[in-house]
Amino acid sequence: MKTPAGVPKTIWGELKRRETETNQVFVLIFDQFEEIFTYPPDQIEAFKNQLADLLYADIPEYLEQHEDAHSEEEVAWLSQKVDARVVIAIRADRLSELDQLKNTLPAILNKRYELRALTQEQAREALEKPAARTGDGFLSPTFSWYPDALEKLLTDLAHNRQGRDTGIEAFQLQVLAQHVENRVIQGLVPDRNGDGTPDVTLSDLPNLDRLYENFYEDSINKLTPSNRKKARRLLEQGLIFEADNQRINLHEKLIQRDYKSDTALIQELIDLRLLRAEPSTSGGRNIELSHDAFVPPILNSARRRKHDMWKRRAKFSGALAMLCGFGILLSSLFTMLQSTDAEYQPSAQVVQENLELVHEVDSLRRIQAELDSVRAVILTYVDCVNRHDIECCSAVMTDTLVRYHRVDSLPRRQREKLDRDYYRRHAGDRIAEVSFVTVEKVGENYEASMNVQFRYERKGTVPVIYQIRLNRDRKIFYLRSLFVKEETSSGNHE
Fold it and tell me: Does domain 303-483 have CATH number 3.30.2310.20?
């Protein structure tokens, strides 16, 4: 029947309005339920009372108070209990907070199920069944997975870098499935077997090593240009403790003050699934990255942009030096053409301008020569490592290193012992190729970043970033290495 006038806009009232037949079952799913505790206490109280009224009351509170306002037929219909089930998804470390609702919802902790990593079979089902479903409401047509593509995908997702079976995180699967489905929607996946539906093959799979990084970049690009820089600064500098490769949380008011990110931008990043909000004991919300898996790709993205910036600076410096030299030549020719004297006599102003240009070019050349000499020291170090020549390494380093991979204040003797032990264990490892080296002068010291392909006998080739600092004498006093995928053990001892 038609919903009578006066039915309140409560959970019970909204479901009653949607009740179209007898024996109808409603399932309410509350995802990220921990966010309920970010709301004011009066709103939490109202929510749990409404939910209790729906689940436990034989006669809804509204009908008890307003029975006289309805006809017998309406009362009979409104008295029919709504058949509703509730599923709550909450982080395991926040499960205890459900105790706050037990006084009104006593059975809230009675039935619990821990959602663990998916097995390969479960993940296969999660990919194949939704892709094959038909009906309205889907942006993409039905599509199928070729067996070899599915097998490679599931095998790669289920194993970590050491080859151990760790299961497949639902979040991983969601990001990947979204990528593939977007390609289907864009018409980039053709029908390969003639059955009228797109077929996903190996060529349609993303680079899993950069899956999250691409997701991060795509999400940032959905923001307005004015918000992208703010978002990157917040995500890359504010919400990650790079030294320990960990995400941290900040109160939203600190974010608004220190990172100039307003509530609208924070909410947009939450909607993009890059951030999540949690209640703060002092009121308001704490903000953090939505998943630990985002930490390495976000840092990698930041490093790539910094390296690109350094490369552009280096090209600009070289171009500027060439332009200055060309400017000197043009200035001299122009002044000579303007002279009507039998013998050209340049003015004092022209001479001064030319001297300044020459000085500027010389300065640029000296700076470039300095940076080239530093680059040469770094490449010498690479050659020493390739040859496992400990004395050679020591020759380009200070006697005590401020930092050597994960070790601080390391004297030469101890460093050489570490190197000796490492080379004994990894006799076949080499740095296969130096991709590029960028050098920048900072005060009296030099800071460099070097991308290399490090070849391990067991792991194969792994991209590694070296962060290196040299003193004014071109001696290395700081050296650290990081995997491009994640900041972890790499290089000699890190």
Answer: no
